[in-house]
Amino acid sequence: MIKVLIVDDDKLVRKGISSAMPWSEFNMEVVGEASNGAKALDFLKSQPVDLMLTDLAMPVMSGIELMRATKQLYPELHIVVLTLHQDFDYIQEALRLGAIDYIAKVQLEKEQFEHVLHRIHTRLTGLTSSIRKMPSTNEINVHYPNVYALVSQDRKSEQKWPVELTTDGDVIRWEVERNSWMWAATHDEQDPLFHQLKASLDQIPHSTLLVLSDVQERTWSQIKNWIMNYTEASLFYAYNPEDRVITVSMNEEEILLKEPQDKDIDRIKQSWFQTPWTHHDAYYSQLIKQFTSLRLNKGQLMGLLYSLVMEWNHLFAQTTLGRISMIHGFDSWYEVEKWIKQTAIVIRKADEQTSYSQEIIHAVKKAVMIMQDDLEQAYTASGLSQQLNISRSYFSQCFKDLMGKTFNEYSRFIRVEKSKEYLLNTNNTIFWIAERVGYTDEKYFSRIFREMTGLLPSEYRQQGRGVK
């Protein structure tokens, strides 16, 4: 039974998640609740937990601080983050700290409970599934010219090997890990085994047949580990349903998964928002190359895509530029790229609904991202229009039509929205926050904040951190 701890400062959220989700259907049990990070750490000291769902914005100790602490104290603990739509920067930090999944509270509806738990359970079992004990020949060198591995990218449901082989002689087969098997035949003729395995591909969803060469003088354990590493680091990106047989040498240099760096994440974010990749093949190819060169694992890639979608919808969902949908699930890069292509179509169709050219739409999107990326800078419509080589009056009209707010209204809006995040997620002074969102006068910032929210910054922080 997977033991679950729910951490959120909102009692109703905790009780709702605890009681409404079908935990038992996924072999899970909620064993505790905590209203902040400090209380969560106290609970973890007294009772073992396998999975922790945590909010990011909490008093006393935030979710990010809690994740940093548990990463050191309980490295085996798996974490799912509960988010609000505007938490883009904190999602990125959670990704770097190893969160395995993300749940947007605003999208958490009853009919999605089962889908959410299924996704988390799939991720969890994929990370912790046990490996069957290797046969007694585990440490005996392999003397066959080839070893075959049939690997399914589908981790949603456990597959069983569907057919018996009819080759002459003895055939060794065992399970490497969940939905992954390997074979070696004890006779010289390998073709019958290969052709039967190739024919079985249609009976195993999302499967690939690996033909491993240079296996001589290696132990079964070494081969098993190599298959597992290749599946995680390379096959995810190499899988192609049109070409399901891959011949690969065990002498090839091992490709290792990388930890995402800030500069790499920022480069993809810049390409996603500031280049016309949805309309031009060259920019699309550049974006795809940036994604694949990162070599992120599935969980990290899911987090990055989730962050991009959340940021896009946060910026444009309420405008004429439209909303995009998150990929529901994927087992390979092939499926991710298919989703990216479909997303490009959605964005192009939204652009076509406006009366402006694609170049003007791109210029407005670029202006939005320039402002979002440097809130300390006091950008003006005049300065940005000059930078984008558009007349100020035309730029102002386009901006209002596409974004639904005047340039000045939007500038105040994004600064206040960012200041809300700082107020709830940090203990920094009002003056510090004002400076970070482009206001050098604390009193002027407070006046703008109250005009837009009805509360002073200090009142907003107190109300947001009050007992619920």
UniProtKB/TrEMBL annotation:
The keyword Phosphoprotein applies. The modification 4-aspartylphosphate is found at D55. Residues 365-463 form the HTH araC/xylS-type domain. PANTHER family: HISTIDINE KINASE-RELATED, TRANSCRIPTIONAL REGULATORY PROTEIN HPTR. SUPFAM superfamilies: CheY-like, Homeodomain-like. It is found in: Cytoplasm. The keyword Zinc does not apply. InterPro entries: CheY-like_superfamily, Homeodomain-like_sf, HptR, HTH_AraC, HTH_AraC-typ_CS, Sig_transdc_resp-reg_receiver, Tscrpt_reg_AraC-type_HTH. This is Response regulator. The lineage of its organism: Bacteria, Bacillati, Bacillota, Bacilli, Bacillales. SMART domains: HTH_ARAC, REC. Keywords: Cytoplasm, DNA-binding, Phosphoprotein, Transcription, Transcription regulation, Two-component regulatory system. Coiled coil: none annotated. Signal peptide: none annotated. It holds the Pfam family HTH_18. It comes from the Bacteria. Residues 3-120 form the Response regulatory domain. Its main location: cytoplasm.
